[in-house]
Amino acid sequence: MTSANTSVEALAEAFGPPLYRYDLRELDAAHDRLTRALPGPHTLYYSLKANPHPRIAERLHRLGCRAEVTSESELETALAAGCPPAHCMVGGPGKTPALLDHALAHGVRDFSAESHGDLHRIGAAAGRAGTTARCLLRINPDHTSSAQAALTMAGLSSQFGVDAATVHADPEHYTRVPNAQLTGLHLYMGTGLDTTDALLTQFETALTTAAALAELGLPLERLNLGGGFGAPYAHAAVPSDFPGLRPQLAALLDEFTPSWTEGSPEIVYESGRYLTAPCGTLVCSVVDTKTSQGTTYVVLDAGINQLGGTARARHPPVPIEAHPLTPSPAPPTECRLVGPLCSPLDTWHEALPLQLPTPGDLFTVPNVGAYGLTAALIGFLGHRPAAEICVDGDTVVSATRLRLQRSPLAPRARSPY
């Protein structure tokens, strides 16, 4: 740990752009906002997919979050951050036997099953480990309530969860899987829900669906209501504190799960984006400016290889706003903001009003602590990944850089599965 000037300018001078600055105190503030917005008692999982940086995982563990992971690497990060295996849950639609064996060997017993086949693979792995896995069955409701979601993940044809109608037709099909003890349900409708009304609508759908399945005899010791708590991405804005959510959601829980305040069922939420987005700022610099056929281009030393790979792949792509650290008084010009990659796809914004910069000027992108570096095309063209600097007040607590490198690989042993 080193005491330092932790301003953007000082970090850019010390480490060079491009770099991510993660402010751990912003992480604390986001966690406080979310936990105050949710009725208690509840259990909150941090979804490491949003940002698997070890210091972020460690801080959120210290704040009381459990860990939702989808890979061996994420699990190892969570465990190294101090999260006990009993507080880790493995989810995702593509859990391989190798991942399941790895998780069980490290003491993890909680899983979210996305299909009947997934449930059987979890049970088979638990049998090989001589234990029983505790499973939530992820449900895809019959209709969506997430019209306001940035990404809808339920209520339509989806790789996520089992269709509710399918479970209704044969509930015992999911309760008699050897070594896979069904303990409850998991419903996650969509992500990027940034209003109280949108969240309440999805939670009501989830609770209605869960109550109907519980009447068929499916166990409901735990109910994972997901989350989808929205936060600003790559533009300047303040996250919502979801006014009114706490009492209105408590009323819904009272209606559909009357004993929830006594832990029956245990109410679970997940969050990645909301917890981490505000803590991250990407700092980059201008390499060149040019005009081509009437369009002004600002070429930066960071592009979709450092930020926005998944965001720009959406339809329509999410625009990314980078602004000069020290604006000039010159009138703005519409600029196309592009990165250094040899591809026209490496575009952050088609027409962003900017005072025309000069090479070397620093630009910043706010609210990118979630789905930043590890959601980008890190390996494309082989540019070094941006440095990642974690600060806590006036202290730099971590300064690291991811490395992509090849290593020798021997053929694996024949799989017994």
Written description of the protein model:
- With 417 residues, this protein is α/β, with parallel strands linked by helices.
- It folds into two domains: 91-271, Alanine racemase (TIM Barrel), CATH 3.20.20.10; 278-400, Lyase, Ornithine Decarboxylase, Chain A, domain 1 (Beta Barrel).
- It has helices at residues 8-15, 24-37, 54-62, 72-80, 97-105, 116-128, 164-169, 196-215, 245-256, 273-276, 309-312; strands spanning 2-3, 19-23, 43-47, 66-69, 88-90, 110-113, 133-140, 151-152, 162-163, 180-186, 190-191, 222-224, 266-271, 280-292, 295-300, 323-324, 333-338, 347-354, 362-365, 387-392, 395-400.
- Residues 149-155 have low confidence and may be disordered.
Helix count, per DSSP?
Answer: 11
State the share of residues found in helices, binned by percent. 25-40%
What is the tally of beta strands? 21
| Gap between N and C termini | 46 Å
Proportion of residues in β-strands: 15-25%
The CATH class of the largest domain turns out to be: Alpha Beta
Rounded mean pLDDT is 93
- Rg over C-alpha atoms, rounded to the nearest angstrom: 23 Å
Number of domains: 2
- What coarse outline follows from CA principal-axis ratios? globular
Which blocks of ≥5 consecutive residues have pLDDT under 50? 149-155
Going by CATH, the homologous superfamily of the largest domain would be Alanine racemase
How does the major sheet shape up? Answer: 10 strands, mixed
Which secondary-structure class do the elements indicate?
Answer: alpha/beta
CATH topology of the largest domain: TIM Barrel
* CATH hierarchy: architecture of the largest domain: Alpha-Beta Barrel
